[in-house]
Amino acid sequence: MERSQSERMVRFIGSLLPLYDMEYGVDACRARQLATGVTLDVVDESAADEERGLIQLRHPGSSETWMVEGRMLATEALKQYVDLLGFGMPEKARRREFRRMCDHFAFKTGAYAYMEWEDDQSEALVLAGKVVRALGKEVAVSGFKSLLGLP
């Protein structure tokens, strides 16, 4: 039997040790965020027109539950996972690892994480920063003004 998108997402997020852990029951699986105890449960979307990969969250000690899109939750979980395991790595390497993990998430679940961690600087900005550091602020500003035709 094929797993639902919700179950694939809960299983993926639950595999992000040491941030999450999995609990397997007779009928279903559940992930638990180890730092807070929040549980992530599979949502049955079989009656829905379209599977959205919803996950039900429950805070420990509360009967209140809420639903979130699994890919939104997965994006944040992947960021935390990469930040934890990439501690001390250069920012560029951590971004590469985040993209790799997002690709892995898509392969495992059929859904795509939000790629909002895309604040790479363009080559022009990096070059401009090097020019400013090499020539000094006044010389660089004067050179940029003349390039733009400003007085």
Q: In words, what does this structure look like?
A:
- The protein has 151 residues and is an alpha+beta fold.
- The chain has two domains: 5-109, no CATH class; 121-151, no CATH class.
- Helix content is 46%, strand content 16%.
- The chain is built from five helices and five strands; from the N terminus they run H-E-E-E-E-E-H-H-H-H.
- It has helices spanning 5-14, 70-85, 91-109, 123-135, 137-148; strands at 20-24, 29-33, 39-42, 54-58, 65-69.
- A five-stranded antiparallel sheet has the order 1-2-3-4-5.
- Strand 4 (54-58) and strand 5 form a beta hairpin.
- The mean pLDDT is 85.
Helices and strands, with pairings:
Elements: H1 5-14, E1 20-24, E2 29-33, E3 39-42, E4 54-58, E5 65-69, H2 70-85, H3 91-109, H4 123-135, H5 137-148
Antiparallel strand pairs: 1-2, 2-3, 3-4, 4-5
